[in-house]
């Protein structure tokens, strides 16, 4: 059985849009795409008057080297979010198929499914936020085409051992595509499961440059998968997913200097994560600090709402995760620079003093009482 047998037949048969860049490349006088012949004011020679490559060759090459895969196993996308949406649209028929998730987990899996009118089946994580392989497999129905696993998990920070991933992908063969979201894997002790791609055609891995590579604003991510899955998604991805400034930012981040800089920051985050977990656990009002292999810590408080307001009054915005199952007393705190982390600790330990010393400007609040832009 081919992994494509799981996909929607109408997508397999779809004649994709053929852009000017897809049909012809090279040349000196470009008159095939109805672009402006003039660069925009202040462009500085970046060539933004021209459409970018659909899958920029230099960036694809850099990412394949980084992730240890072949070109035909990689699809560049606008962050992981676009890849999630493409997978749901390609594999789930509206009103008939479903995805399987393990809450609490990243919310976009369910959002993309519901936009597609696909079902959402839940197999909750254990009380300690580890994945229950048996419960996950028991929840799989004939309608399930995609099983999403987030490791390290957002918002809990727990990891799924490689052996569990391999057990899942083996059991799902012929039934569903296992999608492993590794947005935070650079911060974890265990590495990627991308080394399994050559052995299992029903495995897909999501990667992003938003977190460890400091490019959240550039929106650069990718899907690693069997070449047939990549080719299928290329049928439905927009013709020019990444703008030139994002491509250029990614190439700089993936250069030798950029990688050395990113890895130095990853080391700082990992060290600060240990320090912050120890310090937070000692503070009054803290019930527990969940173990985390990501770049954040999820903390249980006696009164999480009061702590959220206390931090906000000091100009510090953290993520309120109380709406997630099993986390009704918790806040998620990103590990920042040592100075930023110290300000968090000082605010929690000495709220009045820290409020008076805070130099950060309080961000605007939306109508729900959450800080604007805090949706990731």
Automatic annotation (TrEMBL):
Coiled-coil regions listed in the entry: none
PROSITE patterns, A to Z: AA_TRANSFER_CLASS_2
CDD domains (UniProt xref): AAT_like (cd00609)
Enzyme Commission identifier(s): 2.6.1.9
Superkingdom, natural source: Bacteria
GO MF annotations, alphabetized: histidinol-phosphate transaminase activity
InterPro entries in the record: Aminotrans_II_pyridoxalP_BS, Aminotransferase_I/II_large, HisP_aminotrans, PyrdxlP-dep_Trfase, PyrdxlP-dep_Trfase_major, PyrdxlP-dep_Trfase_small
Cofactor(s) named in the record: pyridoxal 5'-phosphate
Reactions catalysed: L-histidinol phosphate + 2-oxoglutarate = 3-(imidazol-4-yl)-2-oxopropyl phosphate + L-glutamate
A Pfam family it matches: Aminotran_1_2
Keywords: Amino-acid biosynthesis, Aminotransferase, Histidine biosynthesis, Pyridoxal phosphate, Transferase
Record field: transmembrane: none
Record domain Aminotransferase class I/classII large: where: 46-347
Pathway named in the protein's UniProt entry: Amino-acid biosynthesis; L-histidine biosynthesis; L-histidine from 5-phospho-alpha-D-ribose 1-diphosphate: step 7/9
Modified residues (N6-(pyridoxal phosphate)lysine): 211
Family the entry assigns: Belongs to the class-II pyridoxal-phosphate-dependent aminotransferase family. Histidinol-phosphate aminotransferase subfamily.
Quaternary structure annotation from Swiss-Prot or TrEMBL: Homodimer.
Listed name of the protein: Histidinol-phosphate aminotransferase
């Amino acid at each position: 059985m081919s992994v494509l047998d799981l996909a929607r037949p109408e997508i397999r048969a779809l004649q994709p849009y053929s852009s000017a860049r897809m049909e012809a490349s090279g040349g000196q006088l470009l008159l095939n795409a109805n672009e402006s012949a003039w660069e925009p004011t202040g462009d500085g020679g970046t060539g933004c008057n021209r459409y970018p490559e659909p899958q920029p060759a230099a960036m694809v090459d850099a990412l394949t080297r980084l992730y240890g895969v072949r070109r035909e196993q990689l699809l560049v996308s606008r962050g992981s979010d676009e890849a999630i949406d493409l997978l749901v649209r390609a594999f789930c028929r509206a009103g008939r198929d479903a995805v399987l998730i393990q809450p609490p987990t990243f919310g976009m899996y369910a959002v993309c499914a519901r936009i597609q009118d696909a079902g959402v089946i839940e197999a909750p994580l254990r009380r300690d936020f580890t994945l229950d392989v048996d419960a996950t497999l028991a929840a799989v129905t004939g309608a399930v085409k995609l099983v999403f696993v987030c490791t390290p998990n957002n918002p809990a920070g727990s990891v799924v051992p490689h052996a569990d991933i391999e057990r899942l992908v083996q059991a799902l063969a012929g039934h569903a595509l296992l999608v492993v979201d590794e947005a935070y894997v650079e911060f974890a002790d265990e590495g990627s499961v991308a080394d399994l791609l050559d052995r299992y055609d029903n495995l897909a891995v999501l990667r992003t440059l938003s977190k460890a590579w400091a490019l959240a604003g550039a929106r650069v991510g990718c899907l690693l998968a069997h070449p047939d899955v990549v080719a299928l998604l290329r049928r439905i991805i927009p013709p020019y997913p990444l703008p030139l400034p994002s491509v250029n930012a990614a190439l700089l981040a993936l250069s030798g200097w950029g990688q050395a800089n990113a890895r130095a920051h990853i080391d700082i985050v990992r060290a600060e994560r240990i320090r912050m977990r120890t310090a937070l656990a000692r503070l009054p009002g803290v019930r527990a600090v969940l173990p985390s292999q990501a770049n954040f810590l999820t903390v249980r408080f006696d009164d999480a709402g009061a702590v959220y307001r206390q931090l906000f009054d000091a100009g510090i915005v953290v993520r309120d995760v109380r709406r997630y199952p099993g986390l009704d007393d918790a806040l998620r705190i990103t590990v920042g620079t040592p100075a930023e982390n110290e300000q968090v600790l000082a605010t929690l330990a000495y709220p009045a003093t820290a409020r008076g010393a805070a130099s950060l400007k309080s961000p605007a609040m939306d109508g729900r009482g959450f800080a604007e832009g805090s949706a990731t």
